[in-house]
Amino acid sequence: MTDTPSSISSVENTGNLTVMGGGLVGCLLSLYLARHGHQVELFERRPDIRGAGPVEGRSINLALSDRGWRALEGVGIAEAVREVAIAMHGRMMHDTQGGLTFQPYGQAGQSIYSVSRAGLNRRMLDLVEQEPGITVRFNQQCRRVDLKRQELEMLDTETQQERVVPYQRLFGVDGAYSAVRSALQRTDRFNYSQEYLNYGYKELTIEAAAGGQWAIERNALHIWPRGQYMMIALPNLDGSFNCTLFFPYEGPDSFATLQTPAQVTEFFGRVFPDALPLMPQLETEFFENPTASLVTIRCFPWAEQDHVLLLGDAAHAIVPFYGQGMNAGFEDCTILNELLHQHGHDWGRIFQEFEALRKPNTDAMADLAVYNFQEMRDRVADPRFLLQKKIESK
Ligand code: FAD
Fold first, then answer.
1. Domain of 146, in residue numbers
2. ipTM confidence
3. Coiled-coil region(s) at which residues (predicted)?
């Protein structure tokens, strides 16, 4: 069910569960909650992305792995997603001469999958909308949460109207810069840390070859490891690749030193020579696409009594080098679902067990993600590593 903005001001909180954030995790969580028979009211700051173009500045493709698939299977949507996913059987390394080395991810048949973030989000919004127990409200930004009064200060971003919405139970899935979490941050004994890398990232494109074919190997995650930085590329269904350049903000080779189109082209020609001819939009994209930062956010506790729970990036934002941020958020939903089966409506117990189970795992993933940056940008190109991989794969 979708509510139009004009009817919102007359509607009070109808659901007994409020989900803040209609991103990937918020949609999946809403489906799980509704399947348990709950009425869910889902608020999303953005307009309905199904009517808009690609969302600027966000990675277009994501790697979906086992823990993500399991969570999608739990609500019966894995097959629909599989139809638009491209298997990546391993890493394809590109050296500075354009030479290629392939490292399989596992035994035959084991793969991770490239899926479009917007496509997945759109598909999930379709499913959410079809679910009788869920009401979706777009253009609704949470400005503040009053934990004592259990009230949300909401802004309608279309009409600029503000209103107060009561909640009984609130799920904060509003991403790394969560408004729900910022209310918890003001409570006693709430631990919080955020750490930025000295690297940013920029989205770029390898165009499809003639006839919508893939100009480089389709079923691989491509990496151009260059020691202190790297570029990666994930395949799209239309033959193009979504590339991400992970690059220092400052230093000899950095965003600070690439200031003109000529400098960008010269740099790519020298460092990523086989990619450059496949990137006709490079100069435009490099200066038009934003440079985004990379942050790890840790906090605890994730629950406030049996009223509020954080999940997804709001609870544990990690850097993308392990390809597990969304997958971990999806796994949050799997675990919460199991606890709902075990404990029914005992929310206090569900929230407590959820955070105790998930926190050590997501902390470990946060560490692995930072570690894997070094591996991807540097160690995967080390001849000793390549030899070891060859021996392992025999
Ligand atoms: P988000 O996707 O951030 O969604 C939050 C939602 O809440 C948004 O829709 C937002 O509009 C809404 N919102 C925010 N604030 C408010 C508010 N105040 N009021 C109302 N609504 C609000 N993960 C993987 O698993 N695999 C990958 O390959 C991968 N690659 C990545 C590459 C990059 C470059 C980056 C940056 C991340 C990558 N991730 C990857 C991580 C992944 O994108 C996140 O972990 C995932 O999007 C988290 O989902 P979420 O729903 O918790 O948060």
1. 2-88+115-193+297-372
2. 0.99
3. none
